[in-house]
Amino acid sequence: MTNTDWQVIVVGGGNAGLCAAIEAAEQGKRVLLLESAPKEYRGGNSRHTRNFRCMHNAPLAKLTDSYLEDEYLQDLLAVTKGKTDPELARMTIQRSEDCLPWMEAHGVRFQPSLTGTLSLSRTNAFFLGGGKALVNAYYQTLEKLGVTVQYNATVQHLHLSESSHRVESIDVEIAGVTTRLNGKCFVLASGGFQSDLDWLARAWGPAAKNFLVRGTAYNRGVVLKNMIEQGATTVGDPTQCHAVAIDGRAPQFDGGIVTRLDCVPFSVVLNKHGERFYDEGEDVWPKRYAIWGRLVAAQPDQVAYSIIDNQAMTLFMPSVYPPVSANSLEELAEKLGLPVEKTISTIEHYNQACQDGQFHSTTLDGLSTRGVHPAKSNWARPLSKPPFHGYMLKPGVTFTYLGLKVDGSAKVQNAHGNFANVWAAGEIMAGSILGQGYLAGFGMTIGTVFGRIAGREAAKHVN
Amino acid sequence: MSIDNTGEARRQLGICNACRYCEGFCSVFPSLQQLRQFSNADITQLANLCHNCRACHYSCQYAAPHEFKVNIPVALADVRVDSWKRLARPRVVASAFQRHGVLIAALLVITLMLFISLLGGQSPETGSGFYQYLSHTTMVLIFTPAFLLPLVLIADAVRRYWREVGGEAISTSHLRGAFNQAASLKNLSGGQGQGCNFEKQDHYSNARRYWHQATVAGFLLCFASTSTATLLHYLWNLPAPYPWYSLPKLLGVPGGILLTLGCSALAVLKLKADRTLGATGVWGAEMAFVLLLGLTGLTGLVLYAITGTSWVSTALALHLACVFSLFLLLPYSKMVHGFFRLTALIRHEQTRTTDDG
């Protein structure tokens, strides 16, 4: 590995890096892919994904109907509230349609949208077996193409030329030994920095020490930081991350999809002092789950408790941990470690504020409280049917927004224009397009589109 | 029943139910997603529905070293083998043969010695063909109970299974659905015909699916050959030996070839596959059974090939010993999976709400 003069070195072995490596290798280039995780954890956050948001003018593979460019862009603008580069966004959307057949040609298999996700059957193509199956398929493709893959390889530093115009070599640490590798072109696809909790705490505040990370433990932002220190232009709010409320018992890293809790709209959510703090029934859950990470993060000790009674138990997707259950609210409060008196009084107040009316779990039923603050606007039924159940909520970070600024050819920008031989793809540059909020399956779209561009551009540069 | 195995499967199925990424692979996932809690009977049914294709394992974001340590192929295989041991009678025999390949080999050796001594004791003038060595009456006296008793025991175990999983009245559409799934091995197709992840780890392959069906076809042809021979003997008074163009030979020769090749291929695949992804502690017994089945086919072919030579007596003893052991082991070996699997598929037809068939 050290004696080879690599034509393209790809840093990061998730979806974006894999797409880049495949494209470059298919142009006949000598490609090295460096993955910081061990083989079992390869694939970054892609191993936790499940679908790919894809524009299409007519039914395509398992995608129904059509999903046109303008609608897709509107969906993106709605979540980013304008924090996007419209040109890059439009290009990403346009190119997503070509990506799907390309993915299939490289071993990715799709399945109809999963049970309970019918709302996504038109917009999102689901991977058979999920993101890890996609990652496996791409690594198999790399093997066929003769790409060298090195696991447990953390890139520590990129050496710039004297003019700071190009990267000449990189330092990579493998099993405690640091080696310098030479390459002609570099594709950076090593993700955000959300797994570096110290960095997260510096950016967000000390509360971030209590955050859980939903994805890989290997997105520590080492390359991102190194490039920023060496003059790369950044995009995205450096203090922000995308976080949702997840089960507080989830592991520190890699809890993934199963730790989500969809019970909030049917529950009463209390902070550790036994107080309610936000309208649990403001809107349907798919439109609200993303704000709850932030809401819980703002509570003391970054923790909250979602409490339901037995009649709500079957209204949401099962989650991985069984709830804490008790036959009385007093007992439940005690088991959850909540102040019993305050908890009871909060719930009694809430119960008294509930009105008669028709309850409908799947639509905005308008069944709201009267005379309690904060109000609950929908699905407000009194907690009255024992046993009662409680789930601890904590903020779970999905990704960070700070990234490297790129142009339409995925080239990394600096004060003088760009680096001559450095491209970026995936979460490390996603902030250019997704500056705020999140759109399901869009991270994989950015990664695939920009990974492919970066791989091709790098290969072109070698010639 | 092993509480540990069932409990471990329950823990893992709960994780699957919250994830659902694998629902396109096979019938197990849509089936489990209909449930919110898993009774022991639910877990037994899911375990027997699982074909051990391993697709879910290689796709699993929660497989070890992740702390959730999800490994559905093993969790369900362990429950599955437990259910075969628990529902068979006598349990102690099932338990022994399901676990110890060496016992299968021992049974074969003992029956071989039995047949050698039997054949040695017969006078060669009293019949023609094989019956020179062992009279037809003796064969019928030995093989009728050796064939019928295991079938009765299997029927009894399957009935117990059916009651446990809450099976209902069976309609022709249930049977059609189940037999279609069994004939195409839909649950080893990976959901899209790309096959399973048995011998090539995270690469899909149809090798196991096709060789399994070659084995099944071979077995059924051999069975048909024996059945037609019985009919010829009793109804038309046409005793063996039969010429090459007769039904028993036309069915039996291709059957024997398919059975031999199928079992050899399955044994090779089994050697290539990851041994830690099957039921714990039964690899040897499973392998012994596959080899016994293949040997049954092979010895049958050999017997035909050496007609008229001095080796017939020995080869016949070996073939009869294979057949005899195979029959006796029907309820107590890997062979029983076919009966439970088919029953689980019928039950699945009764409960499924999605078009995963």
Description:
- With 463 residues, chain A is α/β, with parallel strands linked by helices.
- Chain A contains 10 helices and 19 strands.
- In chain A, the strands form 4 sheets. In chain A, strands 1, 2, 6, 7, 8, 9, 18 and 19 form an 8-stranded mixed beta sheet that branches.
- The model of chain A has no long low-confidence stretch (mean pLDDT 95).
- Chain B has 2 domains: 82 residues, no CATH class; 264 residues, no CATH class.
- Chain B is 66% helix and 0% strand.
- In chain B, helix 3 packs across helix 5 and helix 8 runs parallel beside helix 13.
- In chain B, 45% of the residues are buried.
Q: What tags apply to this protein structure?
A:
heterodimer, A: 463 residues, FAD/NAD(P)-binding domain, Flavocytochrome C3, Chain A, domain 1, six-stranded mixed beta sheet, 10 helices, B: 357 residues, mainly alpha, elongated
In short:
The complex is a heterodimer of chains A (463) and B (357). Chain A has ten helices and 19 strands.
- The whole-number mean of residue pLDDT values of chain A reads 95
Which CATH top level class of the largest domain in chain A fits?
A: Alpha Beta
Main sheet of chain B?
none
The CATH architecture category of the largest domain in chain A equals 3-Layer(bba) Sandwich
Q: What is the share of helical residues of chain A?
A: 25-40%
Secondary-structure element order of chain A, as H and E? Answer: EHEEHHEEHEEEEHEHEEEHEEHHEEEEH
Strand tally of chain A, please?
19
**Most extensive contact:** A-B, 33 and 34 residues
Residues in helix, % of chain B: 55-70%
Shape by Cα distribution of chain B: elongated
Query: pLDDT under 50 segments of chain B (min length 5)?
Result: none
Q: Class by helix and strand content of chain A? A: alpha/beta
* Cα separation of the termini of chain A: 21 Å
In N-to-C order, the SSE pattern of chain B is HHHHHHHHHHHHHH
